[in-house]
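Lab channel / #folding
Pinned by the channel admin:
"Please post every new chain as: sequence first, then the C-alpha cells as a reply. Keep commentary short and put observations after the output so the thread stays searchable."

First post following the new format, from NK:
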Amino acid sequence: MHALRQEILPPSGAEFATSLRLTPSALGELHIPPNATTRHELAARVLCNVVIARSSLLRIFELREEPVSLQIDDERERKKALKGAEAVEGEVEMDEHGEGFVNIAKSTGRSIDVTVRTVTKFYLVREHRLHGIVTGMEGVKTISTLEDRLDRLLVSFRDAKIALLEWSSAVHDLVTVSIHTYERAPQLMSLDSTLFRAQLRVDPLSRCSALSLPKDALAILPFYQTQAELDVMDQDQTQTRDVPYAPSFILDLPAAVEQNIRNIIDFVFLPGFNKPTIAVLFQTQQTWTGRLKEFKDTARLVIFTLDIVTQSYPIITSVQGLPHDCFSVLACAASLGGVVILTSNSIIYVDQSSRRVILPVNGWPARISDFPLPPIPLEHNDRNLELEGCRATFVDDKTIFIILRDGTVYPVDIVIDGKIVSKLTMGAALAQTTIPTVVRRITGSHVFIGSTIGPSVLLNAAHMEEEVEEDEEMNAPTTVVQMDIDYDDDDDIYGDSNKITEPTTNNYTNGKAAKKTRTVIKLSLCDSLPSYGPIADITFSLARNGERPVPELVAATGSGPLGGFTLFQRDLPIRTKRKLHAIGGARGMWSLPIRQPVKAGGITYEHAVDPYHAENDTLILSTDVNPSPGLSRIATRAAKTDISITTRIQGTTIGAASFFQRTAILHVVTNAIRVLEPGMVSESTALDETLIRRLALDGTERQIIKDMDGNMPRPKIRACSISDPFVLIVREDDSIGLFIGETERGKIRRKDMSPMGDKTSRYLAGCFYIDSTGLFERSLHSTAPINGATTTLQAAVNPGSSGQSLILIRPQGVMEIWSLPKLALVFSTSMLSTLQNVLTDSHDLPALSLVQDPPRKPQDLDIEQILLAPLGESSPQPHLFIFLRSGQLTIYEALAGGQGIDPSTTIRASLDIKFVKILSKAFEIQRPEEGEKGILAEHKRVLRMFIPFVTSPSPGTTYAGVFFTGDRPSWILSTNKCGVKLYPSGHNLVHAFTPCSLWESKGDFLLYSEEVRGPENLLFRF
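Reply from TO:
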C-alpha cells in the first residue's frame, strides 16, 4: 500500500467561525481544582463555545472567563503580608502598660470594595476532521435543545451538502445527526457549478436554514422548535428527538418570489418577525466600471417572508437603484429594523419602508452613482477609505465595527432622531488588528476576528459610562481604545479605596449639579489564536539544534502587514547548557529534591523552606550497567556550575525518588528496596562571599528490604513506580510487589495485596497517579468511603496523597484502577489492548492472570509501558499514555463519564470516568532476538519509558508534559490553544531523561543520548 497524500501541517487560520453552547461545560461553571485559590473560585466560568473551521479541520474552543494571574515579586508579597499590621487607635496600650492585650474598641478600619478583575481566554476542547471542504457554519437550536439546553452545529460543504452535528458526551466529540445533500439538484447540473461559492445562513430563532445554490436558488431546511409544530402528538417522544427537522426543499427565487432576482450577491435572515424573513441583495443587470454610462445603480434589495406551511413568500420591501458595487448586507437588531448594506465606497442603511441613509467613505459615490448624498462635513472631506475586502459586525444595536482589509477598525454609529434613522457617522480609526476573513459577535461584548492570513484575535467591546463636561458635545466619539491594563496595581484591581461615591438627588450632588454621562465603548484585546497564514514560497535551510545540524523549512507566509518569514522545524528546539560526562547515567537518571539538616559551626539545624517557591533539586542519582553488575552514583552541585560525586553504590538502579516528605531517598535496585539517609549539608563561603551548600551523602542505609521469597531469591526487578508513600515493583516473571511507607517510623513495609486476588497474579505494567485535579474524587461512586484515613501520617502531612490510585495492566490486556490506601477496585476495562476510541468501566471484578505453563511469550499487542499523568499548560488534565510492544503509541484523555451510576446496583465501587483517544502514532522499532541474554544484550537493550515533567521555560508559563525515551524519543506537550502534540527530540536514541532544577532553573532537563554518550543539561529554546 502506498500513501498518495500525507498532511504534515494542518490548515492554518480561521475561515469560518460561530459561537454557541455546544458542550455541557458552557451551561455552568467550571470544576474548580482542589488547590485553586479563592480568587479562582469566584470567577472561573465558560461563557460559550467558539467553533472555527478551515478546509476540513474544525476546532472547538471554550471561551473562559478567568481571574487575572498576578505576577507579584517578593517585595510586593511582603507588603501584602504587612498590610493591616499597622498600629491602630488603642493598640499602643499594649506597649505602654504591658497588659498583653490589644484594645481595638476604638479602632476604625477602611472598607474596601473588592472586585475581581477577569480576563477572557480560549481553551481548546477538541479537534474534529470532516470529510469535505467547509463553506459555511452556524449554530442552531432544535427541539432537542429544550431537553439538554445545548445548541447544534450546522455545517455546509463545497459539494452542496449540509450536515447537522451535535456534541456527544459519550465519545467527547461531534457526531452526525443528519446529512442533507443537494448535489443532484437541477441547479448543480451546469458546467460552471463547481465555481459557485455557497453561503449558509440560519434564522435568528433557528426556525430554518438556507443554503445558496447556483441559478439563484436556496435550499431551505426547516427545524422543529416546539412539539406543536410536529403534528405528531400521538407518537412516541423518542421519534421527535431523532427527527428534529422537516423535509427540506429548494426555493427557486425567480419563480417563487420575484422574477427579477438574479445574480445573488448576499442574503441574510432578519430578526423580530413572526415568520422567517429573508433580505436578498442581488443585481439583475450586471455591470462594471467601464459600462457605468449604460448601466448604473443596478443593485436591488428584496425582503420577503418565508411561509413554509402555505408555501407562500410575500414581499415586504423592495428597493431599487442601489450602487452597483454593493457586496454585503447586515441585519439590524429587531429594535431598529432594516439592514445595512456595504459597498466599496459607502455604507447604506435601508429600513422596512425603503427609506435609505448613505454614508460615503470617499469621493467616488458622487461619480459612479446617482444616489442622493448628504452634505459632507468639512473635517471629513479628506476621508479616502476603500471598503473592498472589509468585514463588519454590530457590537450593539446602533454601533458597527468596520474592519478594513488591512485590519484597521472604524466605528460607525447609527444616529436616531425619534424613531427614524437620521444619519450614519464614522469615527476615527480605533486600532489596527489582523487581516479579517470572518468577523463574529460571539457574546454581548466580545468580537472574534478570524483570519486566514495571520493570527485570529478576540476583542472586548465593553460599554462604559463616561462623564461629559458641560461644554463638551454629546456627539463626540463613542468608542475608545483601552491600550494597557496594569494588573499589578492594587487600585486597578480592587478599586480606589479612597474613592467615595456621593449620593445624588435630582441630578444634584451636595447642592451642585451632577455631571452628564454618556455610554462609550472601550475596545481592548483579550486573546489571540496563532496562525502562519498562506505559504507563498518555501525553501530548505541548515541550522543547528544543540550541536546537531538539522534541516529546517523557511517559508514566506502571510500577506501585507502580516507578511513575513516562518520557520518550520521538525524537532523541538533545545539548547545545551552544560555536559556532565562524569556522572554517567546510561541506564537512568533521577534529579531529586531532598531536605537535609544543615551543619554550620558545629550546630545542626533544619534548613528553612521558602513557602512561596517550590524546592529545587539537591542531588542527581545516575546508574549504568557497566561495569557488571552495574554502578550507581550520587552527585551534588559544587561551586558555581561544577558537580561532584559524593557516593558510589554497586548495582544497577531501577528507580529512585524522594520519600517521606522529601527527607529520604527511596532506592530500588534489581534485588532490593533501600531507604537512604539524606546526609548533612555543610555551609561554606566562597572567595566571592557567596554561600555554598554541599551535600555530604555517604549512601547510609536506613533500611533495606531484600526481595526474597523466604530464603529463595525472587526474579530480578525490571520496573518500578514510586509515589510517596507507596512503592510498586514489577519483576521479570511479571509478578509484582507493593510497599507502603510509615512516616512516623521513617521505614517501609510490605502492603497486603489480598484484595487484588492471588499473590501469584501476573501484571505487565503499572504506575501510580495522584488526583491533583479532583476528577477521580468527583467521579467515585461507592456505598462506603474507600479513601478513608490511612494507617500512616501521609494523609495528614501531604493532603494530596489521599487521591492516590494504582493502575495495573494484566497480560490479557485488562486495565484496572485500584484506589489507595485500601486497595479497592474502582475501574476495569478489557478494551485497552485493542485501543478502542473510548474506554469505560466494565464493572467487572478483579480479573485472573495466573501463572501459565509453559511461560507466556511476549506478544505484539502486549502493553509495554503505561503512565497516567497530567498534561497541559495552565490547567493540566490527566492523560493516559500507552505503548504497545508492536510500537503503537496512544494517548487518552481522562474525562468525567456522566453515566450516573447508582452505587446500590453495582457489586463494587465504580469510577465514573472515561478515557477518550486523542492521539495515536505507530513507530517502526527493532527488537533483539528472543532469548538473547548476557551483559552485551543488557547493554544493547533499549528502555522505552514515559517520564512526566513540569517545566517553566519562561516566567508565568508552566507546562506539564511527558518525555518518551528510547529509539523514537519524543516530547509530548499540550497548550491551552493547541491539542496534544508529539514532537521528535532530534536524537537517534535517548537512554535516560529527567527534569532537573539543581541549578535553580525550573526549565532544565538532563538527557543521556547515544550521540553524546553522556548527560546533557538542556532547556527549551522558545
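NK: DSSP finds twelve helices and 72 strands in the chain.
TO: also worth noting, The CA atoms of residues 188 and 214 lie 6 Å apart.
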